[in-house]
Amino acid sequence: MINKLRRRFLGAAALLMAGGGLAQGQTVQGFVHEQSSEDGYVWPTDTTVLKKLDAWQDQKFGVLFHFGLYSVPGIVESWSICSEDVDWITRKENLPYDKYKEWYWNLKDSLNPTEFNPAEWVRIMDDAGMKYMIFTTKHHDGFCTFDSKLTDFTIANGPMAGSGKENVAKEVFDAFRDKGFMIGCYFSKPDWHCEWFWNPEFATPNRHINYKKARHPEWWKNYQDFTAGQLGELLGGEYGKFDILWLDGGWITGDEIGLDSILADARSGGHPGLISVDRSIRGRNENYQTPERGIPEKQLPYPWESCITLSNDWGWVPDAPFKSPAKVIGMLAEITAKGGALLLGVGPTPQGTIEPEVEKRLHEIGNWLRANGEAIYETRPTPVYNDGLTWFTGSKDGKTLYAIYALPEGEEMPATIEWSGNLPKGKMTLLDGNKSLKYKTTADGRVTVTLPKGLPKMPLAIKFTPAK
User: How many CB atoms neighbour CB 289 within 10 A?
Assistant: First the structure.
């Protein structure tokens, strides 16, 4: 098991470094889901799903919120209660394993986000230029941020009970939906708190169920019913209309929980065109792929999304280092040029707030997108999509091309930038300020653009008409 996990971990790390998501020597924090192979993608046949996917591909930039018990001590989400001996699963408390799990479960009595204000979350993410959101209704530890009636292990049964905001997930979904965001529901298929997944009769040696299905089919059937029931609660109407169902925990497949019928009921009910993201499970219910913590090496000819953390962790941790605005913009440019979307991980504090340092960085990203978003939103990939630090996108009608120069953090802006291919004709402008640019082309297809002096040390975007 450990060797298999190590191979998966190292393979994922290699993918990330090749795609520019990690620098050599940087540590991967936490479990990384493998990306499904290109030949494993199955295009949906439901026209409403295809239409929703096309609309989602216009959004380009979203936020993934991890918020739960792990937020209280500021530790890696859920994984510290998983008894696997890998270096990224650490425990702060010097306790035997069973005592540690007991301590962790009891965090339900400490999670009390007294400053929780979903309107503030919306304001900050809208200001950042984000267009869609995913919120964790349940991570692998089984703790629900929604008011599930199938378990007492929910935020609504803790200190928030009676506050009027105890159904946190509903409050978050409603607030973002009112602002026009596409809405995504994160849900973990594994549930380590449920007795029908980790049964108390046996030890819990790893992330999987801790019994043999063939010997205890009734336990597994109970788990299937429990999981389908919780998804039924979320998709039943009380939590509004969802655009995306984002299913995590790829060691349990959608088929094992009856996902086909769950999706059919949801799409024929209040969620027409619902996008299914059965992460890393190749086939009909992985409507877009989710390479994690990095960027694929090349363009991919189907819908996909890189999910990458703003810090090193998905949830809140104290004194976290954060990626710079220039780094995030550079990633967004590369991902967009390769045909994907960027889902940026942000962890709210245990008080239910977004840290000021996070807000500051997101505001700078939003400022850049307000000036240059035309090169990102509602664009599509171009055949020639990269030359060095320059990434190319195009308008849907193919009449306009954009060149995004991803200036690395801390470097000086060059006097000129060059690329091959994507020859321009006529006027070329800098999107920020609509300034005309001088350029020249050579017979061998080389373009040299002269940049104005005094530009900020940030990525820039250029607009031009392609030569026929």
Answer: 24
> Which token pair is 343?
């889902």
* Residue 145 contacts residue 116 (beta carbons within 8 Å): no
Whether the CB-CB separation of 77 and 139 falls below 8 Å is answered with yes
Q: What is the pTM of this model?
A: 0.92
Minimal CA–CA distance to 335: which of 125, 62, 122, 39?
62
Phi, psi of 415 (to 5 degrees): -75, -30
What is the pLDDT at residue 20? Answer: 38
- Whether residue 93 is predicted with pLDDT greater than 90 in this model: the reply is no
> For the chain, what is the radius of gyration of the CA atoms?
23
Going along 108-148, which residue ranges are E strands?
132-138
In this structure, which amino acid lies at residue 389? Answer: L
* Spatial strand order in the sheet of 182-188: 275-278, 244-248, 182-188, 132-138, 61-65, 341-346, 305-309
Separation between Cα atoms, residue 164 and residue 117, nearest integer Å: 12
Cβ distance 253 to 278 under 8 Å?
yes
With b meaning 16 or more CB within 10 Å and e meaning fewer, what string describes 218-238?
A: ebbebbeebbbebbebbbeee
Distance CA 287, CA 448 (A): 40
Length reported for the chain: 468
DSSP state of 421: S
- The chain-wide mean pLDDT, for the chain, equals 92
How far, in Å, CA of 64 to CA of 182, rounded?
Answer: 12
Using CA atoms, how far residue 144 sits from 137, 157, 303, 352, in Å, is 6, 10, 29, 15
Tell which residue, 123, 182, 180, 184, has the closest CA to residue 366.
Answer: 123
pLDDT digits (tens, 9 = 90+) for 102-115: 999 999 999 999 99
